[in-house]
Write a structure and sequence with these properties.
The structure is a single chain. A hairpin with a 2-residue loop joins strand 3 (53-56) and strand 4. With 253 residues, the protein is an alpha+beta fold. Helix content is 57%, strand content 8%. The chain has a 4-stranded mixed sheet with strand order 2-1-3-4. The longest helix is centred in the C-terminal third of the chain and has 42 residues, at 205-246. Bound molecules: glutathione (GSH). Glutathione binds at residues 12, 14, 43, 50-52, 63-65.
Length: 253
């Protein structure tokens, strides 16, 4: 039994929080990525005709927050008591509010597809009130957790939200150091750290060393060939000189 997550290709606001939870819990799963152009063809097979959808043994669970909560429950990250759970829920539902705030103008999609400038500014303005409230709240906690000073699903899901928006909208977090610190702390957690989609890919050290050796080898080979040609040429000149003088009649010397 392997979990399957159905969503569009690439990063998505409604699927990434579930993926962060899966990464943190080291729960194996497969992504079923649907190309945009294929969506009209396949959408009727999904409940509510929307994605993300979680599949297990051929059965489907729709609704992003239901999917997140399913894994949060498995990982005992819902909160320690009813009050904590309600607070964590509230933070997770606020992510949906940010999506709603940006959705009418499809701002994130526009920026991600290269239409930057004014759209970046507009997105930053729409997200600012959320960031101000979060920054203020984090100053009342240990700075690394939103609820109860210990890890809950709200930390993982909310950190993902701001990390992702921060990648798309430049300088978004500049005025919000507490949010940045919180987000970075979550992304340093085991499992999440290895998963992070935002890190620069690892430098290809082995390929780089092979390439450098290849270049050095090629230069050395070229120098050897050149040296051999020069030595050969000098030898030929000396021989030619000798031959030339040996052919000059003695009485002319
Ligand atoms: N409340 C749903 C909303 C799902 C939703 O709107 N998904 C979008 C992608 S993020 C979708 O399926 N869009 C394609 C469509 O509406 O045809 C959830 O949280 O899962």
């Amino acid at each position: 039994m392997v979990y399957k997550l159905h969503y569009f290709e690439g990063l998505g606001a409604r699927v990434e929080p579930a993926r962060i939870l899966l990464a943190y819990g080291k729960i194996p799963y497969e992504m079923v990525e649907i190309p945009f152009e294929k969506w009209p063809e396949v959408k009727s097979k999904y409940p509510n005709e929307k994605i993300p959808v979680l599949e297990l043994d051929g059965k489907f669970v729709p609704q992003s927050i239901a999917i997140m909560r399913y894994f949060a429950r498995k990982l005992h990250l819902l909160g320690k008591d009813d009050w904590e759970m309600a607070q964590a829920d509230a933070f997770v539902y606020t992510i949906e509010d940010t999506i709603t705030a940006l959705m009418p103008d499809m701002l994130i999609r526009k920026i991600a597809t290269g239409q930057k400038g004014e759209y970046e500014k507009e997105a930053a303005e729409k997200l600012r009130p959320f960031l101000e409230r979060l920054e203020k709240h984090l100053k009342t906690t240990n700075g690394e957790n939103l609820v109860g000073n210990h890890l809950t699903w709200a930390d993982l899901c909310v950190a993902d939200c701001w990390k992702r928006y921060g990648v798309v909208v430049p300088n978004l977090l500049d005025d919000f150091p507490a949010v940045r610190r919180f987000s970075d702390a979550v992304y340093a957690l085991p499992g999440v750290k290895e998963y992070s989609l935002f890190e620069t890919p690892e430098f290809p050290t082995v390929k780089y060393i092979i390439f450098v050796f290849f270049i050095i080898g090629a230069v050395v080979l070229a120098l050897c060939v050149l040296a051999a040609c020069i030595v050969g040429l000098i030898k030929d000149i000396v021989e030619w000189q000798k031959l030339r003088y040996s052919q000059i009649p003695e009485d002319t010397v």
